[in-house]
Predict the 3D structure of the following.
Amino acid sequence: MLAVLALAFASCTNESNQPQDQTPTLDATTRSTILTELETNLTEEMGIPIKYESSEVINIEGTYYLRSRSAEYVTTTMLAVDAVGELVGIGVSCTSSSCAQSTTGCVPRFAEGEVIPTCTKCTVGTKDCKRTLTSS
């Protein structure tokens, strides 16, 4: 009986030493790279200077995104979790001025059969939503 209790205690101890599920993080270098590429690409595409003032990682329906804000635009960039549990950009972003507060409009999502995510429709304001592809 004592041996059974010792075995049960040892197995509980081993389980408690297992790593717990942790929320993935986006390191500063990766964040900076994503934002710099977006600023460069969007400035060229839109013909006006874009400079992001803030950004935050958000989770929408189980998918991580980097939501970045400039004076006029909000860009939502799809992220993935790499093998070591860090967030990385997959190179697809959606940008809008009128759909800035929406969690469902102008967000990169995989449509059925699609290999590259498309942007969900923006249903408010000018309904502007632009997909941008970058290397990160």
In short: The longest strand covers residues 87-96. The chain has two helices and seven strands. Residues 41 and 87 are 21 Å apart (CA to CA). Strands lie at 54-60, 63-69, 74-81, 87-96, 108-109, 118-119, 130-133.
